[in-house]
Amino acid sequence: xxxxxxxxxxxxxxYSIACHAEGLNTLVIELTNKTTAKYSxxxxxxxxxxxxxxxxVLKVSxxxxxxxxxxxxxxxxxxxSKATAIQNVKGDGDFRFAYDGESLSVDxxxxxxxxxxxxxxxxxxxxxxxLNISLSDLPKGIYVVxxxxxxxxxxx
Length: 156
Prior knowledge:
It is built from 2 helices and 14 strands; from the N terminus they run H-H-E-E-E-E-E-E-E-E-E-E-E-E-E-E. The chain has helices at residues 2-14, 16-21; strands at residues 26-31, 36-40, 46-52, 55-61, 67-70, 74-80, 87-90, 96-99, 103-107, 111-116, 121-126, 130-134, 142-147, 150-155.
């Protein structure tokens, strides 16, 4: 069973170029513990297999957040098409997010924070009305933006 999973993963990853041409731009790896890792194909992740401690492992490197997991813990993997930015998302309150790839504008809140995927707060701004945060100094990657108790993910 493990060999079948290993071979099917290798075949799936081999088709990443064809999938990207069809508009599928994200590799999703779901683990048996229900956690998910997502990688943009535009980042050109380096995917490899190795044997560590007697176990076969899947490694993703060359991206902002590297990934290593025992192959036996991989539940499924697939490609998906997803937006590369979130624009004009209406929240439960009366606020709106707009993201243009370099800056984030949030209207109707008094504080906005930007976090890396490992939970480190990278930016924070407080004020009234429309708040603008420049993300131009951050490297390409996935970030979590929190405002008014809500969170969204953005891809830079």
